[in-house]
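U., I forgot to send this yesterday:
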Amino acid sequence: MDFEAKLADAYARGYEDGRVTEARRVDTELLRISAAVGAVTDALATAHAEALAAATTDIGSLVERFCRRIVGAHLTYDGAAVTLIALNAVGQLPEAAKVTIHVSPALAPAIRRAITSRPNLEVIEDGHIDGGCRVSTSLVSIDSTLEVIDNEIDKAFRELRGDWP
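Result:
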């Protein structure tokens, strides 16, 4: 073999050995980087899941407080809303039945003005009722007080959260 052929052969073998060695080094480095990226990805996924759970809880609490505030304000201060509830309840009762409506003192005048034509009807100002009303006869009671509605809101949100039996 002449010198130039030997040089070309040595160059080719050296090139191939260098390529194989470098390929092994690159493969090892890629595995190391992949493991590091996997750890970072896992950490980010965990942080994301925790942030999402916290945000979901915060948003749920905010919605729950908002519902309670809106319903509470509506049934505490809106005489028309409570009157509508009372009229609906009274409308479901027999005409001859003696009906008693318990309502907060602040809303009693609105109820009295709205239900003037019903015989055997008594509107009682009840200082224990913050909002809504309770309509009753000797046989049945329809409780739409703020306390009962608040309990129903609580029950609904516990069902949504999955902590209701």
